Amino acid sequence: MSWTRLIRFVAKDTKTYYGNAILPPGTTDIGKARSANIINGSPWSSNYIVTDRIAEITHLLPPIALADCTTLRCLGLNYRAHAVESNLPIPKSPILFYKPGTALAAPFSDIPVPFMAQEHDGLDYECELVVVIGRDAKDVSEEEALDYVAGYCVGNDVSHRAWQIELGGGQWSLGKGFDGWAPLGPGIVSTALIPDPSKLRIQTRVNGETMQDSNTKDLIFGVKETLSFLSGGTTLRAGDVIFTGTPQGVGMGRNPKLWLKDGDFVEVELEGVGTCGNKVVFEKGKAKL
Fold first, then answer.
1. Integer Cα distance of 148 and 135 in angstroms
2. Fewer CB within 10 Å: N-end or C-end of the chain?
3. pLDDT tens-place string over residues 170-188
4. Residue 36 is part of which domain span?
5. pTM of the full structure
């Protein structure tokens, strides 16, 4: 038996497990799971076992352990309507940047905002389809690309526009790579349940108000094209994640601009997967000199 809704969680026995989420009737939101079948072995290997042992969930962790994720790749400007709102031309090839592993965060954890990201306006949200690699891939064709995908989840590419664009010398990763700025989950839905990622509704809500509401059919470079491009001469490892870009409606694209504030609650949702909900928490006290 293969996993279909992979989660990583702390159980009531205080131990951490990978598990196959058991959903309540009538929902596809993994975040509503209260129990899971424990998985023995690494879900990124070929010899794991989904056991009959059921554990109650205390809280969800990032669905991929940092030790199992070698790289967080991210695409920028990958929705047509987002390129339009940004007053930028449609890219001719994927725009790639990276987040460090320390950005990886749980689906319901706080978004910590350090002092250097508080000194200027520009804190923004970005809901994104996240692709999780299932087995090592190098030089794969578009036709075979989906064979290397384990599944999909939703992520928030938390961004600080001033550090991304104006202050960091044009190094996008600086304004997007602070600790905890890649919350994702709430779990990973396998390709058996989502065979076609090209027509999924994706949304962002801030304090309950819808800010982004789009569909992955507006992606400029779909999952097949993205994996084929990124695997050219480079090995994508099992457990690696790819943030595939955000649709229109970001705070930077609004008039007036809408920046996240201390205490805001941000939800990103992907059809068939569920919702990540994260509170914005500004670091308090005095900055260290």
1. 6
2. C
3. 778 889 999 999 999 999 9
4. 5-60
5. 0.96
